[in-house]
Amino acid sequence: MSKRAKKTMEAYNLLCEKPYRATQLESLLGVSQRSTYRILQDLKALGLAVPTPICGHRWGYFFTYMRDSFIFYRSFQRSIQHLEASEQLEVYHAIIAYALDQVEPELTRYSQAVWEAIKPQIAANQRKYEAGLRGGKPKANHDLTIPEPSPNLMYNDNVNDNEKENEKDNENAQRFDLFWTTYPRKTDKARAKRSFLRLTKTEQELAVSNIQRLYSETPAQFVPHPSTYLNGKRWEDQAIQRNPNFVTPTDETDTLPTFR
Q1: Is 189:180 a contact under the CB 8 Å cutoff?
Q2: Which terminal residue of the chain has fewer beta carbons within 10 Å of its beta carbon, N or C?
Q3: E strand or H helix at 62, and its extent?
């Protein structure tokens, strides 16, 4: 293998870990600026690297390896559907940029809340994709003799169940933290958490995603307590449009009756 090919493979392995600027790769690879440019051209020609603009970054472009596709889950759509149209578009663009090019989005408040619920799944899929690029699961060797495991190392159903339960608890805790951060009225957090944990995963997601639709224009003192919102499944309520005076006259010419 030529020196250039070795350096190209080395650059590829670095880009599998995280994005780098060309100047950073030049330093890490220990080659000249011209050699770095040629290596990046080789990776781009193979479809393994692409220059990616980083929002608000004064150095302009990072290089990362390129993906052609990603998985979009129905749960993403459920989380996004109650946002305003402009915010929905904002989150859709964030999903595409992060899933394909690992670009971190800059979002507004409610879009950011929904994005934080979606991002972990995309990141998990990205780790699987990177593992596949590095070779993935080793191929089976039919000539290999696999010894019987020691009795002390045998599969334990109880341990596996505990791991699944711990994973579920962590996911519930993350969703509640997102709910508490987003909900405009912070009252009796302990009671709210108990109510939140009694909900199914789908109900928890709906409880979070509908907050903006219902209370984005409502003063905090008129927002129900968090536990009331959760126990009453208030995310199913219809949003009420109010003017600043909370009263809409039926006719501007109406006058109050006069009593003598």
Answers
A1: yes
A2: C
A3: strand 61-64
The token pair at 189 is 């957090």
In this predicted model, which residue has the larger pLDDT, 142 or 70? 70
C-alpha to C-alpha distance for 21 and 147, rounded to whole angstroms: 47
Contacting residues for 113 by C-beta, under 8 A, at least 6 apart: 178, 181, 182, 208, 211, 212
The whole-angstrom separation of Cα 57 and Cα 39 is 24
HSE value, Cβ hemisphere, 13 Å, CA-based, for 93: 12
Those residues whose C-beta lies under 8 Å from the C-beta of residue 109, and which sit 6 or more positions away, are none
Q: Tell me what pLDDT residue 218 has.
A: 87
Q: What is the pLDDT of residues 199-246, one digit of tens each?
A: 998 999 999 988 988 888 888 889 999 999 999 999 988 876 665 554
Rounded to an integer, what distance in angstroms lies between the CA atom of residue 33 and that of residue 111? 40
Q: For residue 126, what are the contacts with CB-CB under 8 A and spacing of at least 6?
A: 99, 102
Rounded CA separation 65/255 (Å): 70
* Euclidean distance between CA atoms 88 and 130, whole angstroms: 28
For residue 56, the one-letter residue type is G
Q: Which residue has the higher pLDDT, 159 or 182?
A: 182
